[in-house]
Design goal:
The chain is α+β, with helices and mostly antiparallel strands. Helices cover 35% and strands 31% of the residues. The chain has one domain: Aminopeptidase, CATH 3.40.630.30. The protein is built from five helices and six strands. The chain has a six-stranded mixed sheet, with helices on both faces. The longest helix is centred in the middle third of the chain and has 14 residues. It binds coenzyme A.
């Protein structure tokens, strides 16, 4: 997580954090310029979400995370959101996403927020925030979901 945060800040991309006491307990990072590198940055998160990654499945997962043409460009991309397990379920993820949406609404350029995720739990989390699945790609025993929320405001 620390390495990802440092890389994200070095790239000059927006990052939101929840700090309780002296601990960072949640982060959300977005980028406005989709790069091929982001697929490689996504991989560790995907590997963690896929319990038994078969050899060769990493490539299939990378292919599955390719941004679909149906996603309007430009869009803000949610690169990562994570809340420490012991702080989950207290509304922090929702609050981090509210900051992401406010950032999007403050800029006339992005058409909305785009993200890639895996898992029914995550799908429910984003659907409750208004996201819709634009494309679902089966790969390596999971379904990679491409989700989008049009810009509000
Ligand atoms: C996804 C994540 C950021 C959500 O953060 P959180 O602080 O637990 O979320 P919140 O407490 O704000 O929950 C908001 C709503 O989503 C629901 N929700 C959150 N995680 C959920 C899950 N895994 N399954 C089903 N519902 C979920 C909550 O029940 C809540 O619903 P409510 O408003 O009706 O009570 C957090 O679970 C996490 O860090 N997961 C691990 C990393 C990850 O998978 N990130 C997403 C990669 S794309």
């Amino acid at each position: 997580m620390r390495a990802w945060v440092e890389g994200h800040l070095r790239a000059g991309e927006p990052l939101f954090g929840v700090v309780l006491g002296d601990r960072v307990v949640g982060v959300a990072g977005v980028s406005s310029s989709p790069s091929r590198l982001r697929y490689f940055r996504l991989l560790p998160a995907l590997v963690r979400l896929v319990p038994a990654l078969r050899p060769g499945a990493a490539l299939a997962l990378l292919r599955a995370t390719r941004r679909p043409p149906a996603i309007p460009a430009p869009a803000l991309t949610l690169d990562k959101i994570a809340v420490l397990p012991e702080f989950q379920g207290r509304g922090l993820g929702r609050r981090l996403m509210a900051h992401v949406h406010a950032l999007c609404a403050s800029d006339p350029e992005p058409a909305g927020v785009y993200l890639v995720t895996v898992g029914e739990g995550n799908r429910s989390f984003y659907e409750a925030l208004g996201y819709r699945t634009v494309r679902a790609v089966p790969a390596a025993g999971v379904t990679v979901l491409h989700m989008f929320l049009p810009r509000l405001g």
